[in-house]
From TrEMBL:
GO function terms (MF aspect): chromate transmembrane transporter activity
Cross-referenced InterPro entries: Chr_Tranpt_l_chain, Chromate_transpt
Name of protein: ChrA protein
Gene Ontology CC terms: plasma membrane
Organism field: Candidatus Reconcilbacillus cellulovorans
Compositional bias ranges of the Basic and acidic residues kind: 191-207
Protein keywords: Cell membrane, Membrane, Transmembrane, Transmembrane helix
Places the protein is found: Cell membrane
Region (Disordered): 187-207
NCBIfam families documented for this protein: 2A51 (TIGR00937)
PANTHER family named among the record's database cross-references: CHROMATE ION TRANSPORTER (EUROFUNG) (PTHR33567:SF3)
UniProt membrane topology term: Multi-pass membrane protein
Regions that span the bilayer: 6-30, 78-99, 105-130, 164-182, 234-255, 267-285, 301-322, 328-352, 364-382, 402-427
Length: 430
């Protein structure tokens, strides 16, 4: 019990201080779990990070869950997730409740300039995500073509189903067309290539990796690491539960129509189908939440912009939508729903990862999926992000400036969000 509490406290510290999105989170995790506390060594950290890139879901949260599970068993994984998630959960739900109250208190409309500024922050953030992910995941002609094809499919067929079809088609195309390429890039047993090919690795973590002299460091707690890993039987049960819920929830929703079940199903499906990190969940949630009337389009983008300014996982954006749709209960249902598939998948895959990670065909499928994810995000950049936020030359100029601050000047995400809100208030008034 003491170890579980310790995992929770360390994760809470990270949930309160880890700004900057999933890329930066992995840098914070490396400093805290590997270098400072020595709960695992660099090779195992790289292995775990590679696994979480392979799986759908929030990669940084899944890395934390995996470390908690290795440290203190299944309950340790739950403690790591709770600790990392609760600060931003409360902040995002509170933001949803406070939008109208703040507007009334300050005598401004809910469509005020600062709110529109946050929507332009979303334009800059998603544009940077497309740019950086494209350079990493669609860097050659074949993968770039897959990305453009996925973007075209989703744009011409703007439904949630089209996104699933695009991602699945990317996986099939990867298996057929990219197998020869990925075969030459098979992961080394030491795991260093895992870190190099993982687009979520923070640049500071990579620089630190190169500077570390391993002989001068103490050996990590090898007995603690891995003692809580699920058995293969338990892992198979978790994987089966993840797939069963994905298949059964839509049917249950049709048989027992309820608002809570609809929320849980929609967010579970989004969490189960997201490859590529927190920003990629945007198009899936937009198709689900806005189409269902759970949140207005303008407030959806404003909430997403506000999420950039907060520490912790971007997936807690679900708390904002859930709170808009159903108060505190809706926020809780949406948050559990979007994180649950990622939790089950990392718990289920950990016992089998060593066997999977060396298969070139698996890596080829993943390469195709990742390229398609870039295309899905590119389509989302146009609609709804661009079409809902950029309505004048001034909006374009402000969005371009925010993009430059984020992409070229490396301003932290919270600072970009603050600049965007203030600039929107100045340009549009209020």
């Amino acid at each position: 019990m003491r170890e579980i509490w310790n995992v929770f406290l360390v994760a809470t510290k990270l949930g309160l201080t880890s700004f900057g999105g999933p890329v930066a989170h992995l840098g914070y995790f490396y400093e805290e779990y590997v270098r400072r506390r020595r709960w695992l060594d660099e090779r195992r950290y790289a292995d775990l990070t590679a696994l979480c890139q392979f799986l759908p879901g929030p990669a940084s949260s899944q890395v934390g869950i995996g470390i908690g599970m290795m440290r203190a068993g299944f309950a340790g994984g739950v403690a790591a997730w709770l600790g990392f998630t609760w600060p931003s959960f409360l902040l995002m739900a509170g933001f949803a409740f406070g939008l109208d109250r703040w507007a009334e208190a300050f005598g401004v409309a809910s469509g005020a300039g600062w709110l529109h500024g946050l929507k332009l922050v979303a334009v800059a953030v998603v544009a940077q995500a497309v740019w950086s992910m494209g350079r990493q995941l669609a860097a050659d002609r074949l993968r770039a073509t897959l990305a453009v094809g996925a973007a075209a499919l989703v744009s011409f067929w703007p439904t949630a189903a089209s996104q699933v079809v695009a991602i699945a088609a990317g996986g099939v195309a990867g298996a057929l067309l990219l197998g020869r390429t990925t075969r030459t890039e098979a992961l080394s047993e030491g795991g260093r290539q895992d870190g190099r090919h993982d687009v979520r690795q923070d640049e500071r973590r990579q620089d630190g990796d190169e500077k570390i002299v391993r002989a001068a460091e103490k050996t990590p707690d090898e007995t603690a690491f891995g003692r809580g890993l699920p058995s293969r039987t338990a892992g198979a049960a978790c994987l089966a539960a993840a797939v069963l819920l994905l298949a059964a929830l839509p049917s249950a929703r049709a048989v027992w129509p309820s608002h809570g079940l609809a929320l849980f199903d929609g967010f579970y499906r989004a969490g189960a189908l997201v490859f590529g990190g927190g920003h990629v969940v945007l198009p899936l949630l937009e198709k689900e939440a806005v189409a269902a009337g759970w949140v207005e389009p303008d407030r959806f983008l404003a909430g997403y912009g506000a999420a950039q300014a907060l520490p912790g996982p971007l997936f807690t954006f679900a708390a904002f939508i859930g709170a808009e749709a159903g108060g505190w209960g809706g926020a809780l249902v949406a948050t559990v729903g979007i994180f649950l598939p990622g939790f089950l998948l990392v718990a289920g895959a950990l016992p089998f990862w060593e066997a999977l990670r060396g298969m070139p065909r698996v890596r080829a499928v993943l390469a195709g999926v990742n390229a398609s994810v870039v295309g899905v995000l590119l389509a989302a950049l146009y609609d709804p992000v661009w079409t809902s936020a950029v309505r004048s030359p001034a909006d374009f100029a402000l969005a371009a400036g925010l993009f430059a601050l984020s992409a070229f000047w490396r301003l932290p995400a919270w600072a970009v969000a603050l600049v965007g809100a203030c600039a929107g208030a100045v340009v549009r008034g209020g």
